[in-house]
Amino acid sequence: MQSQPVGDAPLLAIAGAFALPGAITAIEPLGQGNVNDTYRVSCACPDGTASHFVLQRLNTHVFKQPERVMANIALLSHHTAGRPWPQADRSRRWELPLLVPTRAGAAWLSSAEECWRLLTYVADSTSHDTVQSADHAAEVGRALGAFHRLVHDLPCSQLQDSLEGFHITPGYLEAYDQLSAPTPGPPCEPTAWCRQFIEERRGLAPVLEEAKACGRLQLRPIHGDPKVNNVLFDRDSGRAVAMVDLDTVKPGLLHYDIGDALRSGCNPAGEEATDLAGVQLDLDLCRSMLAGYLELARPILTAADLELIPTAVRLLSFELGLRFFSDYLAGNRYFKCRHPRHNLDRALVQFTLTESIEAQQQQLDQLVQQLAG
Predict the structure, then answer these.
(1) Residues 93-125: pLDDT tens digits?
(2) Contacts of 25 (CB under 8 A, 6+ apart)
(3) Cα Rg, the chain, nearest whole Å
């Protein structure tokens, strides 16, 4: 495959700087990520077999200290290496992507403006942008529960803050306030609705941070971005086999992960929905995902952890809507967009989902109590 120029260097030369087991035969785009550029690298091994790897360019406008990201991934790889699925199930396949060093022995390839890394590829796996069924939702929950169980004994003091302020909702609200002066010209109805929606929920923003400050919740290792499409599934069995996109692994609250997983997975319309009438929190999917999660994570959760799960679902939906709307106001600088209004449309989806969660808050409370009881 002919190499594609990226920045000042072709992809082929960049991939060739890593310790691959054979000659490169193909490089092709992989996934639909909003932040990093990702490619699948294929190479021919000396024994005649083919191997695949994941080549990524970190977005250093987002991850301003990429060395922290890479140090956390290396630490995570070391901590979880050889650890099986945290239940007595020898048939369960489970793996996390591992770093492949450069030929010079470095963990990643960096220059003044770019940072590239190569990761192992989880073979015979697939992912989905939305939950496909109740069984699929349960497996997403089990994947996150397994991840939390496998890393809960990794001291937070050893992890670095790879993305300062990430999931700190009061910080996003403060950043929004600095952008929120009305733009000149005729008012935009969706924009005005978003502004009003945010104003009515200012009191929601600090709830988790206040619980942390008073000691009700504790910092622990988290994934940071456990959306449905960051869980890989075995093509044959349909079981979860990996969690990917580990850039946001850092110390945080488990509720950031739980809330984000339920927010993203239990809205059948998905984050890119164009018809707001279909956006809702599906309580049946929520039950399946939470049951799968608690099946593995229940032993490490406190009463306060359980009590604040419903609040976390609502908050994480509100938070992402706030981030999308702020990025729209700032000129679409953070999230990749396909058109100028894309982030505004995404914000409308998340705020509509927040309304659906609020309408079912009592049922969510009861659901957590039943499943944890």
Answers:
(1) 888 888 899 999 998 888 767 889 999 999 999
(2) 1, 42, 43, 44, 50
(3) 21
How far apart are the C-alpha atoms of 51 and 20, rounded to whole Å?
9
Q: In Å, how far are 75, 85, 231 from 81, measured between CA atoms?
A: 10, 11, 18
- Look at residue 187 and tell me whether its pLDDT is greater than 70: no
Taking CA atoms, 352 is separated from 119, 208, 218, in Å, by 37, 21, 30
Domain ranges, ordered by start, for the chain? 1-121, 124-373
Q: What is the pTM of this model?
A: 0.88
Q: Report, as an integer, the average pLDDT of 130-137.
A: 93
Residue keyed to tokens 């009191």: 203
- Main-chain dihedrals φ then ψ at residue 293, nearest 5 degrees: -65, -50
Count other Cβ atoms within 10 Å, centred on residue 133.
11
Residue 97's φ and ψ, nearest 5 degrees, are: -60, 140
**CATH class for the domain made up of 124-373:** alpha beta
pLDDT reported for residue 8: 40
Query: What's the CATH code, domain 1-121?
Result: 3.30.200.20
Tell me, rounded to whole angstroms, the distance of Cα 345 from its chain centroid. Answer: 20
Nearest partner of 347 among 169, 185, 180, 190, judged by Cα = 190
Alpha helices, DSSP H only, in the chain? Answer: 11-16, 66-80, 134-151, 169-177, 189-199, 207-213, 254-265, 283-297, 303-307, 309-329, 342-359, 361-372
CB 93 within 8 A of CB 239: yes
